[in-house]
């Protein structure tokens, strides 16, 4: 039996005057899974998230979160979800513990539960020792962890993360990934927008790529990589003098071989693990020693280039890592 969809969008459309920010976006996220949403800056990712989280109403189309319609049942949607935006929205004049208790009280949760949950979340996000410090003294990584902890105080089954690790150093980013994996193991459903292709590769079960307000590709990370171009078999010989012999051997089994003498490498197109196993067998019965033999699949950056015509870093030019005062289409965020 297939898991139920925790997040659904059907032909979502959003206009801002003459500007079409989102144009017929559809996707579904099964319970307990992660959907990564990729696309160039201004593609419509944030506007889509704002529609899904009731912050802006769709011009057309429908969306449901935990079975609730975002237009007809906005209060039920808000009770069922948490949202972490591109910039930490904690109150910097309150302590970490006070931030958690404030949001818990705004949800109408019992004081006893809020106290217990606050301590649990501070511990889970490695903030227990800083719980009584005011948030403005926190590092960027600490503020992002506190922001995520605040979004979880009511234990929502669905969590929307709009570029949650933007501006974090690599170590803080990896730490936050570990926390998110833990949430998914516990059954939380995540929709994640990100400018980091590695992040989507690490966390997402499926990915949708949005460009100019429309979904231009969808699939697992592996499916998208395979669709963007053939994998390559890469062979590194131990001795440079064996390279010509290895090239001749390889050409007996493949139509095209690229030779990199400096790296002592041979590269050839491959259709998957079967080709790699077959070629490995050829060299195993030869006298040529290999340092390495492996299958190199296209990266998600290759996918991005294939689908949008430019690499991911080009899409980020001029994009602020922290200032999210506007959406993709320039709509002011309250």
Automatic annotation (TrEMBL):
Main location: membrane
GO terms of molecular function: ATP binding; ATP hydrolysis activity
Region described as Disordered: 310-334
Entry's Gene Ontology BP terms: daunorubicin transport; doxorubicin transport; response to antibiotic
Protein name in UniProt: ATP-binding cassette domain-containing protein
InterPro entries: AAA+_ATPase, ABC_transporter-like_ATP-bd, ABC_transporter-like_CS, ABC_transporter_ATP-binding, DrrA, P-loop_NTPase
Family recorded in the similarity comment: Belongs to the ABC transporter superfamily. Drug exporter-1 (DrugE1) (TC 3.A.1.105) family.
Membrane topology reported for the UniProt record: Peripheral membrane protein
